[in-house]
Amino acid sequence: MTEAMRRPLFIIAGSILLLVGAFIARKAIGSGDPDIKFSHHANLSSARRAGEIERGWVPELLPAGSTDIMETHNLDTNVGTGTFKFPSADLDAFKAQARQVAGAEVKEVSTITYVVYSRDSSRFELVLTPDPKTAEAMIGVWNMKPVR
Fold first, then answer.
1. Cut 0.70: pTM above it
2. CA torsion sign, 147 to 59 to 48 to 34?
3. Which helix (H) or strand (E) covers residue 146, if one does?
4. Measured in Å, how far apart are the chain's first and last C-alpha atoms?
5. CA-based radius of gyration for the chain
C-alpha cells in the first residue's frame, strides 16, 4: 500500500474512532445499565489517584500533561473508550515514550498519530490529532478491549 493510499485511510480510521468513542460515551451517559460506568478526571494525576489506570480503564500510556480525561467502560464486556486533551508541546515526548513500550506500534499520517499497545489482558488503541480550536492543544481518543 502506498503512502498516498495510507494517508486517507488513517484519516478516515481516526475520524471513525473519534465518532465511535463519542457515540459510546453519549450512550453510556444516558444509559441506566448498571454495568456501564463513566468517569471524568481533571488530569492524569487525578485518574491515577482514583485507581482508573490501575484498574485498566484509563491507559497508563497517556501524555504527561493530559487533562479533561473522560472515560466510559462496560464492566460486563471489559470494553472501554475515552477522550483527553494535552498540550501540543507534549506530543514528541509522548511518541518517544510510546516507542519504548514493548510491542507498541506508533504510526503517523499527516497530523494524526496512532498508537497501539497491549497491557495485561487489554489492547489499547489511541488516536491523537490537533485540536481544531487551538494550535497549542491536541485531543485524543482511546479504545480498549480485551485480548482474547
1. yes
2. negative
3. strand 137-146
4. 28
5. 15
Q: Which three cell numbers stand for residue 143?
A: 479504545
- Give the full edge-to-edge strand order of the sheet including 67-74: 36-43, 67-74, 79-87, 137-146, 122-130, 112-119, 105-109
Cβ-count burial 13-40 (b if 16+ within 10 Å, e if not): ebeebbeebeebbeebeeeeeeebeebe
59: buried, middle or exposed (CB in 10 Å: 19+, 13-18, 0-12)?
Answer: buried
Place of cell 480498549: 144
Taking only the tens place, the pLDDT of each residue in 7-61 is: 665 666 665 666 556 666 555 555 556 788 999 999 999 999 999 999 889 999 9
Residue 60 contacts residue 31 (beta carbons within 8 Å): no
Distance CA 129, CA 18 (A): 10
Indicate the SS3 state at residue 38.
Answer: strand
Nearest to residue 83, comparing CAs of 22, 148, 141?
141
